[in-house]
């Protein structure tokens, strides 16, 4: 049976998880987790929470799942032993450098790979084999069939998200917050850009009014949970550290019922309705089913609407006559939301009358019932009675989780009474009375008396279910002594269960920085996204490196590669950023073109290529999320020749990275369109072809230009790749040519320009500007290199 893994950010959420059947919980590392808006505990509270979990037999994982900046390694070096001293059962990590640092300090600490690592295949796991990661939290973009394939190709533990909010971008690959607002989702500062409305433009023409084109439904897989269990998935994960304890309770109860652990309570609304009442976007099974293109998105709204009650068919004064479509019947005090077109009205229910599926709801005088027309959708946004019932699951002592014990009593005249307590996890404590048993003058101890006084554990987490009494008859011990014996035994067992022994840590210095000899002159690398941009190249007087091709789906790079070779340029191709288990043929097709260089965009692509007998020169792209010298060095040791730093590094952070890592092995893009969203969802199919799969979709991506337009009027281009993944590039390029003197003065010798939809003339203009900066006076003053003859 897989573990049910619940989110926790507050004490109440923790209690809800413990007493509603969670097997494990995960909490954020203070200051370093992917939910910066959550009420993260401090280190002391974190330790108390871990101890409470261990007391009740739950595992406690700590999510340190953000990227580490160059200036944070020293503090991380000291925080790691402090965290490990709290005895977490695992640390969930996104940053490769952090994983390496944990291994450096504590080789035996269990590490789980965060979904932010974009683990989409067993190839990614093979690439990280030397980090000895115990469990991989897989990307949400995988189907049941793909999960089964991964399960068959690895012995590592696998964790799958089964419930909660979905990101439209692959986790770890979203730059929308950075590109649109200067924030970093990889640092826990997601700006929820996917939940905003956008216009869709096909070949420049609007396709209807603005909608929530990038806002997915919420994941709900109660129907697939047993399949995942049979498949051998070790952990079923619930998203929601920003949610309420009522949400935690409802979801755990629903999945416990789906897995056959207990019966759903008949007096409660059905599981899906109870969950929707605690937080409700429309539910879908995410990417698990092959039909996800038709069910994944909710373009009409993006927020929590609760449970859909039905629709209005008449209005009589302050009474709404509603056709009910769910089983839950509202009660006085429930919150109501009515939606008609773009208008929304909220209020509280004052009275309820029911006749079959027809409801009559009386609203308060302040509710604008006169504005409501038949056909309006009705949602229940709050249900205090349901919330109160859920709350009882962790506040009512009679319903709280208990730890079954086996008790053994031994006693002889003239000797202390011994109490042994054993739990199911193998813990054992033995305590003795402070005074000896003596012959009774009246009311001798019997088994009933001993059970009554020693088994009174009502205010503790324990319940004695088995007794073994071996006490001579006719003996006496004061009741106060029995009470003290019970108290001491319970405290000893609590301590034994709550506090483990942490693995040993050694706070070693950070690894020293070594620099390879630098090449004599800088080189300029280009990345082109259409073949016409090749026309910008002839006559450029610059020392050129690689010209990468990142052509859209359906465009064969053969002729473009031939042109580049005829011009004398080194050629490069780009790997998919989302490589799934059955996408091997796409990688083989890339390798069959024999490029000089391969731009690696994912751990899966890296693992696939390293498994080949021979491969081109490898360069790590921005999507590997390299932000510190430890991750930088790790990928160099994997055989990558050059690496691109994360674009989310601010200028001062990049300068610090250049001091700590080898600048001669860095390839820095200084002109590019940020890849805001990289999605395992196809906008072409989902919004223009009724969700049909390739090739039934009509291969629209190969014949049309698709864009989205944000609220500020900025257009952003959508590009599909050979795996049907979509990338949305920011319409405004990020031009950092002004940093060239600083980069070259600090030892960087590989500079990259990327073009998206620039015309050959526009690309030529940017190339000429780069040439001016690379060969002009400003660069000479920086002392980087002499101007070209």
Automatic annotation (TrEMBL):
Ranges of residues in domain Peptidase U32 collagenase? 378-497
Which InterPro entries is this protein grouped with?
Pept_U32_collagenase, Peptidase_U32, RNA/ubiquinone_mod_enzymes
Q: Which domain of life is it from?
A: Bacteria
Q: What is this protein called?
A: Peptidase U32
Name its species.
Desulfurispirillum indicum (strain ATCC BAA-1389 / DSM 22839 / S5)
The uppermost taxa in this organism's lineage are: Bacteria, Pseudomonadati, Chrysiogenota, Chrysiogenia, Chrysiogenales
């Amino acid at each position: 049976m897989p573990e049910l893994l619940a989110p926790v950010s507050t004490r109440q959420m923790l209690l809800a998880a413990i007493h509603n059947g969670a097997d494990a919980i995960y909490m954020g590392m203070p200051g370093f987790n992917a939910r910066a808006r959550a009420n993260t505990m401090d280190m002391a509270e974190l330790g108390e929470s871990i101890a409470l979990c261990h007391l009740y037999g739950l595992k406690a994982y700590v999510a340190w799942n953000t990227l580490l900046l160059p200036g944070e390694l020293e503090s991380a070096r000291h925080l790691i032993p402090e965290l490990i001293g709290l005895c977490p059962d695992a640390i969930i990590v996104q940053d490769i450098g952090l994983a390496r640092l944990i291994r450096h300090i504590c080789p035996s600490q269990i590490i789980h790979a965060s979904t932010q690592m974009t683990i989409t295949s067993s190839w990614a796991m093979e690439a990280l084999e030397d980090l000895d990661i115990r469990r991989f939290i897989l990307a949400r973009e995988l189907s049941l069939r793909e999960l089964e394939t991964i399960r068959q190709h690895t012995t590592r533990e696998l964790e799958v998200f089964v419930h909660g909010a979905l990101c439209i971008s692959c986790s770890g690959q979203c730059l929308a917050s950075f590109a649109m607002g200067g924030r970093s989702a990889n640092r826990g500062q997601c700006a929820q850009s996917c939940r905003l409305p956008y216009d869709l433009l096909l070949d420049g023409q609007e396709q209807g009014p603005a909608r929530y084109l990038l806002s997915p439904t919420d994941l709900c897989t109660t129907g697939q949970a047993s399949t995942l269990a049979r498949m051998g998935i070790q952990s079923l994960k619930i998203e929601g550290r920003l949610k309420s304890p009522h949400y935690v309770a409802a979801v755990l109860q629903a999945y416990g019922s789906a897995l056959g652990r207990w019966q759903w309570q008949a007096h409660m609304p059905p599981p899906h309705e109870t969950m929707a009442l605690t937080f409700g976007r429309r539910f879908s099974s995410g990417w698990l089913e092959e039909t996800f293109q038709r069910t994944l998105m909710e373009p009409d709204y993006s927020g929590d609407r609760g449970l859909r009650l039905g629709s209005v068919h008449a209005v009589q004064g302050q009474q709404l006559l509603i056709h009910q479509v769910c089983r839950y019947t509202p009660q006085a005090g429930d919150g109501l939301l009515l939606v008609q077109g773009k208008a929304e009205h909220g209020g509280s229910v004052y009275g309820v009358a029911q006749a079959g599926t027809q409801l009559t709801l009386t609203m308060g005088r302040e509710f604008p019932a006169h504005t409501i027309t038949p056909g309006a959708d009705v949602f229940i946004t709050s249900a205090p009675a349901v919330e109160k019932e859920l709350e009882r699951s962790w506040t009512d002592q009679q319903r709280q989780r208990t730890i079954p014990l086996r008790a053994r009593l031994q006693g002889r005249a003239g000797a202390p009474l011994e109490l042994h307590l054993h739990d199911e996890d193998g813990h054992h404590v033995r305590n003795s009375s402070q005074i000896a048993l003596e012959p009774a003058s009246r009311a001798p101890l019997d088994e009933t008396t001993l059970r009554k006084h020693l088994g009174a554990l009502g205010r503790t987490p324990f319940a004695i279910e088995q007794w073994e009494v071996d006490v001579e008859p006719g003996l006496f011990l004061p009741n106060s002594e029995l009470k003290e014996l019970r108290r001491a035994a319970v405290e000893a067992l609590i301590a034994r269960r709550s506090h483990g022994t942490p693995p040993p840590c050694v706070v070693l210095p950070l690894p020293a920085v070594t620099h390879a000899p630098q090449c004599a002159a800088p080189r300029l690398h280009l990345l082109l996204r259409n073949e016409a941009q090749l026309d910008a190249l002839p006559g450029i007087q610059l020392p050129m490196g690689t010209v990468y091709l990142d052509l859209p789906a359906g465009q064969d790079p053969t002729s473009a590669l031939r042109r580049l070779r005829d011009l004398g340029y080194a050629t490069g191709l780009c790997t998919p950023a989302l490589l799934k288990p059955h996408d091997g043929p796409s990688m083989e097709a890339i390798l069959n073109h024999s490029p000089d260089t391969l731009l690696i965009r994912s751990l899966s692509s890296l693992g696939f290529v390293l498994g080949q007998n021979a491969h081109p020169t490898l360069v790590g792209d921005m999507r590997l999320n390299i932000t510190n010298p430890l991750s930088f060095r790790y990928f160099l040791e994997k055989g990558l020749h050059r690496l691109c730093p994360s674009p989310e590094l601010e200028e001062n952070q990049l300068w610090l990275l250049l001091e700590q890592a080898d600048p001669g092995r860095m390839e820095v893009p200084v002109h590019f369109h940020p890849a805001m969203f990289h999605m395992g969802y196809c906008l072409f199919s989902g919004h223009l072809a009724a969700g049909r799969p390739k090739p039934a979709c009509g291969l629209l991506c190969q014949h049309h230009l698709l864009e989205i337009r944000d609220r500020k009027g900025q257009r952003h281009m959508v590009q599909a790749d050979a795996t049907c993944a979509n990338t949305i590039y920011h319409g405004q390029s990020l031009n950092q040519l002004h940093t060239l003197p600083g980069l070259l003065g600090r030892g960087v010798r590989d500079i990259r320009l990327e073009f998206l939809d620039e015309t050959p003339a526009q690309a030529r203009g940017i190339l000429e500007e780069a040439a001016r900066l690379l060969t002009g006076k400003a660069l000479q003053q920086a002392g980087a290199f002499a101007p070209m003859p």
